[in-house]
Amino acid sequence: GLPARVRVHEVGARDGLQNEKATVPTVVKAEFIRRLAGTGLTTIEATSFVHPKWVPQLADAEDLYPQVLDLPVSLPVLVPNERGLDRALALGARRVAVFASATESFARANLNRTVDEALAMFEPVVTRAKAQGADVHVRGYLSMCFGDPWEGPVPVPQVVRVCKALLDMGCDELSLGDTIGVATPGHVTALLTALAEADVPVSALGVHFHDTYGQALANTLAALQRGVTTVDASAGGLGGCPFAKSATGNLATEDLVWMLRGLGIDTGVDLGRLVATSVWMAAHLGRPSPSRTVRALSHQ
Ligand code: HMG
Ligand code: MG
């Protein structure tokens, strides 16, 4: 059966904007997050405390984060290392995310580390974050769970190994990333089945699909059928990863909410307000949203 409720983990302000060529002013980002919070979304990833030269678009994290911290929503941020954790904690962040890779090629491209060196870098981050208090929540992203632009299809056991390592480290939740959008529903089912067989509780799993091949919704449905109730999406379908050629936008939050609403699954999100937010953001970015649902509902 399908779940009664799904938590949408909104990544538009982070995954969506990190790849934008033109610099988006900090005030526009703050207003974007404010408007997203006004749609009923409860988890809105705000930015990343990474090296500013690696992701220039998010170099304003220190300016942005205090501007949105008053919002009554969770505002997770990405932290690759202790330096990033220190920056996030100094501003009051209570939800942080480390981001691992299932493949050596992407670990090198994204983190300048091997897979295991990256895990060693995250270990003190997770330990120190959890030591801050019971209300601190740590997400572990895992990229390239299905296919990798350099290595091709990624074997399921290779993904399961890194998932286990992240959970053993103390991550509260994992997000299974299809960074370049090559997954198909059978592959999603195979990975979730293998994780269940490895005693990974499905309640600790989220899915993170990019929509390069138009499979993100089908993949999401396959994940829901396996008991997943946390789904990452980006308003208007913004997004991509600057370190993974061929990564396009995430599953659009509007497309997700449209499907879930049709299935009678509650998200708490006001679709009309969300579409209006993406149309507003598209005007700032100077191009229409790639989301089919945004286009259908806005005559964009
Ligand atoms: P490195 O060059 O190996 O860094 O990069 P280092 O540890 O050797 O440090 C070098 C210098 O950087 C030092 O300064 C550090 O202090 C500084 P120096 O002493 O030379 O003056 N530094 C920092 N400064 C500010 N904030 C920091 C920080 N860390 C070090 N946090 C590093 C290693 C991890 C830093 C770098 O590779 C990096 O920042 N990578 C970030 C990549 C990224 O953000 N990618 C996008 C997010 S992942 C994604 O999009 C996928 C996802 O959506 C899921 C999916 O779709 O699959 C999550
Ligand atoms: Mg992503």
UniProtKB/TrEMBL annotation:
Domain Pyruvate carboxyltransferase: from-to ranges: 6-275
InterPro entries per record: Aldolase_TIM (IPR013785), HMGL (IPR043594), PYR_CT (IPR000891)
Protein family membership: Belongs to the HMG-CoA lyase family.
A Gene Ontology molecular function term of the record: lyase activity
Domain of life, source organism: Bacteria
Stored PROSITE patterns: PYR_CT (PS50991)
Pfam families linked to this entry: HMGL-like
Protein name, entry field: Hydroxymethylglutaryl-CoA lyase
Keywords assigned: Lyase, Metal-binding
Classification via CDD domains: DRE_TIM_HMGL
